[in-house]
Design goal:
By secondary structure, the chain is mainly alpha-helical. The chain has helices at 18-25, 27-50, 54-59, 84-90, 103-122, 127-146, 155-168, 180-187, 190-193, 197-213, 230-255, 261-267, 284-293, 300-335, 338-343, 360-398, 400-405, 414-437, 442-461, 463-486, 493-510, and strands spanning 61-64, 67-69, 72-74, 77-80, 100-101, 216-217. The chain starts with 17 loop residues before the first helix and ends with a helix.
Length: 511
């Protein structure tokens, strides 16, 4: 991909340091910088997708095939796609995004762990256990009413938690309104847990705890945005890329005449995208360009398709505009009386700009005559003489004078003999006359010019001829308007695609 700087710029003769030349021209340096840019893009892509995919990095599980249509519901399959060792490493990236455990939801999970420890130590039916269960019922009601998931944009997970608990504790007697708060109260009830404590805690750990664990707290900085330390990771990449960018711009300014450093910077405009404070995903553009320049990948087909797509998008509009512009210009010329003015003798009095001191019409007329005299007439001479012979012979035989003496002896072949000699002489005279016209003859040129002038005067000064010219101009104007209405139209997408397909076929033939 090349910068839209003016082409055909000559190289300067200024000496450039070999270090600059090595860095600018060496393909391995270009490959190295392309890989650095690609690594930076990978880091940016991970950072941009970390928050949306954090639940997967946290739990390592995705559910496929789950759906709910009216009364029909299917839980789908749970697939573990990230090993625990990888999850534990990746989730450390929370520190870069400023993510901290949300105090209330984390305390809820810690209380469930405390319940398990209390049961193991004191038993299920003990005052300590009853106290912890009361805390869990109270914390469940607060979680549902206050929605601590909202800050992390995880309110959907809270709805999943409520739905799961409703399904688990569905009881028309104990929970006639199918309330999520009542469902949690019934779940953390000693009577419900008695006899199935291990089963219910396992259910909570498997179904509820991962969803609660997805909630987090993220502080807001003084700039009004969430705290984010990604700049500390991105900064070393930007320093390296910026140094390379400045060095290459400097070499360009040295190598080429008339290119200042600011012009060289815009020569490599795509690298400026690296330094945008926002829209980091746009870095895919300079990375793709650098990979293409370093020959690590080839974007030839993509660039060709992109250019053809651009052509397809504007081809119809440009075609229609150009044709309408031409037809409108022709209509304006006719409407302004150009035909009549060009034939008028008064037009010769107006100032006319001659760029080469040559009468182009006269020269064209001579060239046409020369072509006819030297190329056409000699070739068609036999056919023309036969035609003249036939016409002359026919005229003689059909004349009353000849028919009255045709019966006399010796006159039977008279028409044939006289027509052959006459046709040959006529053609020779015509050919010699035309050839004579091709010679430089100012008197002949003057006569031709007078004939043309007189013809124009006759057409413009005569009332009848002038009226006919006006009719011709009006008809031509209307004809062009009909052409615009009936034939000038926006080409369809199929027509444009057919043209592009034909273009691609021609390119393949050339290759």
């Amino acid at each position: 991909m090349k910068s839209p700087i003016v082409k055909n710029i000559k190289k300067t003769t200024k000496p450039v340091s070999w270090i600059y030349n090595f860095w600018f021209d060496n393909i391995y340096v270009a490959k190295l910088m392309a890989l650095v840019s690609l690594a930076n893009l990978g880091v940016v892509a991970f950072d941009l997708t970390y928050i949306p995919f954090r639940d997967i990095w946290l739990n390592g599980v995705i559910t496929v095939g789950n759906f709910k249509v009216g009364p029909y519901e299917y839980d789908g399959y749970r697939l573990t796609i990230v090993p625990k060792s990888v999850r534990e490493t990746v989730i450390e990236y929370d520190a870069v995004k400023g993510i901290e455990p949300y105090r209330d939801t984390q305390q809820y999970l810690d209380t469930v762990v405390e319940l398990q420890n209390t049961i193991d130590a004191s038993g299920l039916d003990s005052p300590q256990t009853r106290e912890v269960l009361a805390m869990l019922r109270e914390m469940s009601a607060e979680m549902i009413s206050q929605d601590p998931f909202q800050l992390a944009n995880k309110s959907g997970n809270l709805e999943k938690i409520k739905n799961i608990m409703r399904d688990r504790m569905a009881d028309p007697i104990l929970n006639p309104r199918d309330s999520a708060t009542v469902a949690f109260e019934n779940f953390w009830n000693l009577d419900h847990l008695e006899g199935q404590i291990d089963e219910e805690l396992t259910f909570f750990e498997r179904e509820i705890a991962p969803l609660i664990n997805t909630n987090y707290y993220r502080p807001i900085g003084e700039n009004g945005q969430f705290v984010d330390y990604f700049g500390l990771i991105d900064f070393p990449f930007i320093v390296i890329i910026f140094a390379d960018f400045l060095l290459r711009s400097f070499v360009i300014s040295l190598r080429y005449h008339g290119i200042k450093i600011q012009d060289a910077i815009f020569w490599r405009w795509y690298d400026l995208i690296f330094f945008l404070p926002t829209l980091r995903w746009l870095r895919i553009i300079p990375v793709a360009v650098r990979l293409d320049e370093s020959k690590l990948i080839s974007l030839k087909s993509i660039k060709r398709q992109a250019s053809q797509g651009f052509v397809a998008s504007i081809a119809g509009d440009i075609t229609e505009v150009i044709i309408l512009r031409i037809l409108n210009q022709l209509q304006n010329v006719i409407k302004d009386g150009y035909i009549e003015n060009s034939l008028s003798p008064e037009n010769t009095q107006k100032e006319y700009i001659d760029i080469n001191d040559t009468n182009e019409i006269g020269e064209i007329f001579k060239l046409v005559i020369e072509l006819v005299a030297n190329q056409v007439l000699p070739e068609i001479r036999p056919e023309v003489e036969d035609l003249l012979n036939y016409l002359i012979e026919k005229s003689i035989t059909e004349s009353p004078a000849y028919q009255s003496v045709a019966h006399l002896p010796g006159l039977a072949k008279f028409p044939q003999n006289i027509s052959q000699r006459t046709s040959t002489q006529v053609y020779s005279i015509l050919l010699k006359t035309i050839q004579q016209m091709l010679k430089e003859d100012p008197v002949f040129d003057d006569h031709v010019e007078k004939i043309i002038t007189k013809s124009g005067s006759t057409l413009t000064l005569s009332v009848g001829a002038k009226h006919n010219l006006e009719v011709v101009e009006s008809l031509l104007y209307d004809l062009l308007e009909e052409i615009k209405i009936n034939y000038v139209r926006q080409p369809s997408d199929e027509e444009i695609e057919a043209l592009l397909d034909e273009t691609r076929a021609l390119r393949q033939m050339d290759n």
